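Notebook entry, structure prediction.
Reason for the run: the old model in the group folder had no record of what sequence produced it. Starting over properly, with the input documented here first.
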Amino acid sequence: MNTATAIALRNEIGKGLRFAWSERLQILIELPMFAVFVILLGPLLGHGANLASGRVDWSLNSQTTSAMVVWFVPFTFFYMQVVKMFWRLLGEIQAGTIEQVFLSPLPPWLVAGAGRVAAAVLETLFVAAASYGIVSAFVTIHLHWTAAALVPTAAIMIAAVGLSLIIAGATLVYKRIQIVNDLVLLMVMIFSASALPLIHVPGWWSDAGHAFPATDGVGSLYNTMLAHRSVTAAWGTGGLVPLLAISAAYLLAGLGAFILGGHAARGRGTLGRY
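New structure, fully documented this time:
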């Protein structure tokens, strides 16, 4: 890596972190809602029959709340990465500075993604740590902390970057795709939650879940941190093969989508037009 590339990369990461810092008030406002969501929904997992019959014994449960935490943190990263990437890119388009992304010595996809990844990691760590502290004040959380969890964590981050680049590529061309962005995240949330064995879903639902970027990552974290299973199990929800294959596929699709989106927007002369 030459000096110009290193400086450009450092500047992009710094810009991403400044964006994150400017949004600190918004994150602080959202934080209590994140914690309350985990506390309120955790006790209801696995009680679908009781809910249907109207007989719900609502009580804080360590097992289900711990499972909620294992699901919530990866989805938070997806949310931070994809949503903030979309709004940051849209802001640059509206401000007329998007051309700078394509004038950098770095590849455009790296310019768009580098700072956002660094910011999303720090934001997620803060939100996760604070939510964990709030939730653990009400119910004991039992997680098996192990280095093996780094494998699904890395796979989740790679898949999130890939998905955010897909959204970014579409944003360069179509601009006003907020509803699509929200729909994609809703689907990621629903299908990733199905990786928790506390939630019973049809077989086709479980099979389709492998195509979504967070499902096997959540399943692998559950297997590693709650079920005490090996991270190297090849198949099934959270299996190493679908985990790595899906993450790599989303990253490659994201790179392709961003490159094609940038090429199409520049070819039409609409890169900086909103």
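Summary: Residues 3-45+56-268 form one domain.
The old model has been moved to the deprecated folder.
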